[in-house]
Amino acid sequence: MPLINYIEANGNHHEAEVSVGETVMQGAVDNMIDSILAECGGACACATCHCYVDEAWIDKIPPAQGIEQDMLEAVVEPKDNSRLSCQIYVTEEMDGFTVRLPESQY
Questions:
Q1: Which of 7, 50, 63, 74 stands 20 to 30 A from 37 (CA)?
Q2: Quick check: is 105 in a domain?
Q3: How many separate domains does the chain show?
């Protein structure tokens, strides 16, 4: 299983093994990483799983599309590397993938 890195706004670093095919959001939920709220359970309907993809990885995953792009307009402090972690599916190639989590999901 790929190891995914979650870095909270306060600097706390979590590493979690996430199964291929699961989302980065589900990996956070399964490993009790509280900075990803995931209120809609991964339906791409609330933007409470907002994250910033590390610059080294941004070009290695498919870009945001459709409803995810629309939902990103609702996040606090959006950046060019903002994504919804419910829309990032883990692949074997993502070992070491890193996301930074915003101070607030609201």
A1: 63
A2: no
A3: 1
Question: Which range marks the domain in which residue 57 is found?
Answer: 3-100
In a domain, 30, yes or no: yes
Output phi, psi for 81, to 5 deg: -100, 15
Asked if residue 61 belongs to a domain, the reply is: yes
Work out the angle at residue 30's Cα, subtended by the Cα atoms of residues 19 and 7, and round it to the nearest 5 degrees: 90
Q: Tell me, rounded to whole angstroms, the distance of Cα 105 from its chain centroid.
A: 12
pLDDT number for residue 106? 75
Contact 28, 37 (CB under 8 A): no
Task: Give me the mean pLDDT over the 53-76 stretch.
Answer: 96
pLDDT of res. 38: 95
Alpha-carbon distance 21 to 30, whole Å?
14
What is the pLDDT, as a whole number, of residue 6?
98
Name residue 36's amino acid. I
**Rounded average pLDDT over 54-83:** 96
State how far the alpha carbon of 71 is from the alpha carbons of 39, 45, 48, in Å.
14, 7, 10
DSSP summary character for residue 106: -
